[in-house]
Write a structure and sequence with these properties.
Two copies of one chain form a homodimer. The first copy, chain A, is mainly α and about 190 residues long. Chain A has two domains: about 80 residues, Arc Repressor Mutant, subunit A (Orthogonal Bundle), CATH 1.10.10; about 80 residues. Helix content of chain A is about 60%, strand content about 5%. Chain B binds a DNA duplex (28 and 28 nucleotides) through helix 2 and helix 3. Chains A, B: This is PadR family transcriptional regulator.
Chain lengths: ~190, ~190
DNA sequence: ACTCTCATGTAATTAGTTACATGATTAC
DNA sequence: GTAATCATGTAACTAATTACATGAGAGT
């Protein structure tokens, strides 16, 4: 369903386009929001045309089909935006690694979270670079803002988690600052 | 692959269990990290047993099979945690709605983001309730911490976005505080 | 006897990924 | 002419959802 909505959204925002154009837009503007390759997009466009959410308005060079959103498509899109509440299906590999972190010993756990932190930082820089490329507000700026905040939050989480991991199992037996009881790990 | 890892993780953390037990644990401890129903879990366990990542150690009442993780299973799990870097496949319906928000007029957009905000707040309360149920640290506490920070960040984002939406298209033509130029929307 | 929860599975469908296949146009 | 990019598709496979199906044991 959501692929359909993403395609309708792109056609609504930037006008008629071919499957190829839409594939490119998934790689650029939509890249941080929804992913889809051409092998998924072409068949979906055909189904959407069969359902009359879009039509082939023109055929360009070498069989290039230019799709245009129909009023049925627009109302489907509008209905999804105003009536549908996403259920945020929790399926995140990062969260899963995070969940399972206590299975590793401290050094490994620290290495894992440090790797994550580096990824979050890279992502943050990438998103910051997208901000106002020509100094004007763009479609997707709220999504971009959300992504930036998310990345920043994740970096902070990683920093704090690394500190916590190091603190709860210090590398040497130095008892000079034992003012805080180490949290005991919970065995199975 | 990740379902497999989640199952290995549960078996590693809390010891031998049946498909039914594991399904229950997906509903409780893992609920905010990875989702799977019994119809996905049973066949996967059979495949994992065929691959010798787990074994049937005991059979309980009414055909209940108790699975135990093998050393192959443990090393597979360990390898995934230490070597595999998740690629955070961006596929979020909430981010998609966010991205498409500018297609709505201001009132509708505000209503949408307010609905999101309510959901984020509910989620935050739900997660906060899971914190230290018996006052002691638990498996999954880093994941829980990440989830809580995420929910809090999302609430803040929603608050700021609602304000921004209202500001860039005020409900009445009051020019008394026009010290700030409204951001011009970018047409298709 | 009946109902509820426990407990395990399969079937059908939809969504998504990876690999295969083909041909047109443009730039060198 | 040849290589790169444009452009569109199909096939095979894996992952996930929804629905169907069945039976055992426990409590009333």
């Amino acid at each position: 369903m959501s692929l359909r909505i993403a395609l309708l959204g792109l056609l609504s925002i930037s006008g008629p386009a071919s499957g190829y154009d839409l594939t490119k837009r998934f790689e650029t503007s939509l890249a941080h929001v929804w992913q889809a390759g051409h092998s998924q997009i072409y068949p979906e466009l055909a189904k959407m045309a069969a359902d009359e959410l879009i039509t082939v308005e023109a055929e360009g060079a070498r069989g290039r089909k230019i799709y245009t959103i129909t009023s049925d498509g627009r109302s489907e899109l509008h209905r999804w935006l105003t009536e549908y509440t996403p259920t945020a299906a929790p399926r995140s590999e990062i969260a899963l690694q995070t969940f399972l972190t206590p299975l590793l010993d401290t050094e490994e756990a620290v290495a894992l979270v440090e790797r994550m932190k580096a990824d979050f930082e890279a992502r943050l820089q990438e998103l910051l670079a997208l901000k106002h490329p020509e100094g004007k507000p763009r479609y997707g700026r709220y999504a971009l803002d959300l992504g930036i905040r998310q990345a920043r939050m994740a970096v902070e989480w990683a920093t704090d988690t690394i500190a916590d991991l190091k603190e709860s199992a210090p590398p040497n037996g130095d008892a000079g600052h034992a003012t805080r009881a180490p949290e005991s790990p919970e065995p199975s």
